[in-house]
Design a protein that fits this description.
alpha/beta; five-stranded parallel sheet; Rossmann fold
């Protein structure tokens, strides 16, 4: 399997190269040159397997330079750290409605599915390519990716990880998870601005010759833990396919039946992974794309207009407080039949004007529907599911649940639907607690109250944050990201 670039289809590189580089020199994203085919018989053969085996099978279809045994070893080591043997358990909440819980990993967020295995993939890729340079893993985060990357790459030989997070754009639990992170190779900085500011600053560095040359002189190369990196995106494909296997295995659907997925998203990577599974052959009827008040994606799917010239809202679902959805570029590439010239045209427009428009007569987005939920909608979804189904969810999952409810009422679509549950409710205890009728301003008191009301066990990684020493306290301006990265490089090589 070779990989090409959304902005230059002439590029042809290996999976290892795509993982190590993270992003193309021209700013484009690496994509597989074709989609491997997953037949119904293949899906049936996956059903008896456990999650690491399923994941390794799917990854091996995209990364044929790795043996299945190699990938299985990485998956077993990565997912051995999860608190549920199923890794991504599928929970039935109503007839025809299921929650895919992606938050049983070491940082209690869906990013763990990819970021626990990415360090193994990156380290192995470097060995395959004969690369001895230190790798500086640059990461912008809206809350969850940062901690997951820090935990995944902590003390991994040959790597250092640098995380930038918006100081006023994450929950208190998310902030504490990052600033208390231990490890000799981890570096965390708050940034004055929002996630889009952090993401833009980091992405610019990958195309900044001065930065690249300065790092190279020190024996350092950059990579990324964001979902712009193929090694971060690919593992997410597996949980869509695994969820389908579980539905068949439990007798909820028959093999070959179509299902829907409702996905809370800001950066679009989580939805895109599902779309890739669909392109492989997974029977999917609709992807229900759910946004919060930062609803640029909703307008894209409904009107064909992607416009980031709009008010940026800070919400109770901060990991979705994103306007610039990097992974949308990969979808645009596919719906325009891999026309790199068209992608360049659209993204040049985005860079110059902050918007672009697609023509629904030229593309097919029939598998997608989109909606958004405001703060009251989000609260109501948490309260309703708790009251009626005795199921408690975090604020991001609630956005997807709310949009799904709207879609279901408007269409009478009875297709079995899986909602991607992306974070443990205890990462957002104040807002979750408030939604079910109890106010508390202190995060730890909110944790206690939430447990008393729901009986949901709070993970140790959350409980241990109380009283933990804040190690990473530096805050930088968005204009200082380059300077900060170069200072980290000096520190590494001192």
């Amino acid at each position: 399997m070779k990989y090409t670039c959304t902005r230059n289809s002439k590029i042809e590189i290996s999976a290892s190269e795509a993982i190590v580089k993270g992003i193309s020199d021209d700013g484009g994203l690496f994509v597989p040159s074709s989609f491997p085919i997953l037949s119904l018989a293949d899906i049936e053969n996956l059903i008896p397997l456990d999650y690491p085996e399923r994941a390794a099978k799917i990854l091996s279809m995209y990364m044929d330079e790795f043996s299945f045994e190699e990938l299985l070893g990485y998956a077993k080591r990565a997912y051995n750290r999860f608190d549920d043997d199923a890794v991504c358990p599928l929970v039935k909440v109503e007839d025809g409605l299921y929650m895919l819980e992606l938050w049983h990993g070491p940082t209690c967020a869906f990013k763990d599915i990819a970021l626990t295995i990415l360090p193994y993939l990156l380290t192995a890729s470097k060995k395959k390519l004969g690369i001895n340079e230190q790798t500086l893993v640059l990461t912008a985060t809206s809350g969850d990716t940062g901690k997951a990357a820090l935990e995944g790459f902590k003390d991994v030989d040959g790597t250092h990880v640098v995380v930038f997070y918006p100081v006023s754009g994450v929950s208190e639990m998310q902030r504490l998870q990052m600033v208390t992170q231990e490890g000799g190779n981890v570096h965390v900085f708050g940034i004055k601005g929002n996630f889009d500011d952090a993401q833009a600053a980091v992405k610019r560095l990958f195309n900044d010759k001065e930065t690249i040359d300065a790092l190279k002189a020190k024996g350092i190369a950059m990579s990324s833990a964001n979902s712009i990196n193929w090694g971060r995106l690919a593992p997410q494909i597996a949980y869509y396919i695994s969820a389908y296997c579980d539905l068949v295995d439990s007798g909820e659907i028959e093999l070959g039946d179509k299902i829907n997925f409702a996905v809370p998203t800001g950066n679009f990577g989580d939805v895109l992974a599902g779309y890739y599974a669909y392109r492989m052959g997974l029977p999917v009827e609709k992807f229900i794309v759910a946004s919060n008040a930062n609803n640029a994606l909703t307008d894209f799917f409904n009107d064909g207009v992607y416009d980031i010239n709009r008010v940026f809202y800070k919400t109770m679902s901060p990991s979705m407080d994103i306007l610039v959805s990097s992974n949308l570029e990969r979808l645009v590439y596919e719906i325009y039949d891999r026309d790199d010239e068209k992608v360049r045209e659209l993204y040049d427009s985005l860079k110059k004007t902050g918007r672009f428009e697609i023509d629904f007569d030229e593309v097919n987005l029939d598998n997608f529907v989109a909606g958004w939920a405001d703060e009251e909608d989000t609260k109501n979804a948490i309260s309703t599911f708790f009251d009626l189904d005795d199921y408690i969810m975090d604020t991001h999952t609630a956005v997807a649940a709310s949009v799904y409810n709207d879609y279901s009422c408007e269409t009478d679509d009875e297709t079995p639907t899986v909602v991607l549950s992306t974070a443990n409710p205890y990462k957002f205890p104040i807002d979750v607690l408030g939604a079910i009728g109890s106010r508390e301003r202190d995060s730890y008191k909110a944790v206690v109250k939430l447990y008393n009301l729901t009986a949901l066990e709070c993970p140790d990684c959350i409980l241990e944050l109380e009283g933990a020493k804040e190690i990473h306290t530096k805050v930088v301006d968005r204009t200082e990201v380059k300077k900060t990265v170069l200072e980290v490089a000096d520190e590494i090589t001192a």
